[in-house]
Amino acid sequence: MRRITTIAVAVTAASALALAGCGRADEGAANTGSGGGSTAGSTGGGTAGFPADSLIGVSLPQKTSENWVLAENLFKTDLAGAGFKTDVQFANNGVAEQQNIVQSMVTKGAKVIVIGPIDPAQLGTQLQAAKDAGATVISYDRLLSNSPNVDYFAAYDNVKVGELQGQALLDGLKAKKPNGPYNIEIFAGAPIDGNATSFYDGAMKVLKPKIDDGTLKVVSGQTGFKQAATADWKGENAQKRMDTLLAGSYTNAQLDGVLSPNDTIARAILTSVKQAGKPIPVVTGQDSEVESVKSIVAGEQYSTINKDTRKLVKATVQMVKDLQAGKQPQVTDTSSYNNGTKVVPALLLPPMIVTKANVKEAYADDPTLSKLTNG
Ligand code: BGC
């Protein structure tokens, strides 16, 4: 079953800064990870603490976007810097490989296992094994579903990401021509990734009323999540679909905008449009990938989302440190993230929209991206 997300409560900018910037969770915070009293008890790892040089496992999905690659190195460095032994692994071959990786982390005695799942619903057996071994499980970026053995969720507010993308599409269209109707197409991410649903749902909150009142026209008629989805988050799949849409629905009509859930898919859409010799539409994105930031600076891709991986890894590592010290990690939301079995206490960081207008400020403190925005 897919993750059930109601309204995600955004953490305030101030508390996010305190969390991510200072790295020290506010120990006096009212919200704890107890999530109805079941969290610490569900693993036994929540409050007992464990030796400071314990093994921490980090199981990452496939390298479908740059954020995962950045996370790999940051987890290695930050966890080792805090004195832990680390086992950080991608599951490039898919779900079965990730199941084996998580199981082997349990067998090796990892005290905390951080998981960015490929298919959030397919790790139930391994999560049960983690619980039986007394390990704490932190769901990272994507929410593990259909298991009671998920202790914490650390992520950017995914529904908010979608809302920002939907609003950016509208803003970009208005900036190009003040009045609609505008012809648009809708793309979504991988159907097995619950985040893809959250991004789509968030965006549709903003776009649906405008589709209903005729301001936006989805010329292909493909507005449903399944129709819009992109298998495996792969650019090539999105590019093929865009080629088909252009050939089928835009021989005479002009395409004004495309809702894209992330940067990889945004660039694939732009490639398709350019190859078809059509004018560049307003295209949204997410992840602040190097090539997309360059494209925004060059005036092609319209927007991306800044979900600074450094901050999310830092906040997750802080959770691990708290668990090691026998403290409840700080969370910001104890009611919104129902994984189908339980409400998972969540630490949510606020995502930020980036367009050409604020690209310089947005990456001012990022050594890699700030180099792209000068001039
Ligand atoms: C992440 C996005 C990313 C996508 C593809 C999602 O679960 O939240 O940041 O673009 O996966 O890797």
Question: How does this structure look, described?
Answer:
The protein folds into 2 domains: 14-157 and 308-350, Rossmann fold (3-Layer(aba) Sandwich), CATH 3.40.50.2300; 159-306, Rossmann fold (3-Layer(aba) Sandwich), CATH 3.40.50. The protein is built from 13 helices and 14 strands. It has helices at residues 13-22, 39-43, 66-81, 95-107, 124-132, 158-176, 194-212, 225-228, 235-249, 263-275, 290-297, 309-324, 359-362, and strands at 4-5, 55-60, 85-90, 112-115, 136-140, 152-156, 182-186, 216-218, 257-259, 282-283, 303-306, 337-338, 346-349, 352-355. Strand 2 (55-60), helix 3 (66-81) and strand 3 form a beta-alpha-beta unit. Helix 3 packs parallel to helix 12, helix 4 runs parallel beside helix 5 (124-132) and helix 9 (235-249) crosses helix 10. The model is unreliable at 1-45 (pLDDT under 50).
CATH class call of the largest domain:
Alpha Beta
Give the percentage of residues in beta strands. 5-15%
Series of secondary-structure elements, N-terminal to C-terminal: EHHEHEHEHEEHEHEHHEHEHEHEEEH
- Rg (CA only): 21 Å
By CATH's scheme, which homologous superfamily of the largest domain applies? Response regulator
**What composes the largest sheet?**
6 strands, parallel
Averaging pLDDT over every residue, what do you get?
Answer: 89
From the 3D structure, determine the CATH topology of the largest domain.
Answer: Rossmann fold
**Helical residue percent?**
40-55%
The geometry reads as elongated
**Low-confidence runs:** 1-45
- In what order do the strands lie side by side in the largest sheet? 3-2-4-5-6-13
Total DSSP E strands: 14
What's the multimeric state? single chain
Number of domains: 2
The structure class reads: alpha/beta
Q: Ligands in the structure?
A: beta-D-glucopyranose
Distance between the termini: 48 Å
Please tally the helical runs, counting DSSP H or I stretches of 4 or more residues: 13
CATH architecture of the largest domain: 3-Layer(aba) Sandwich
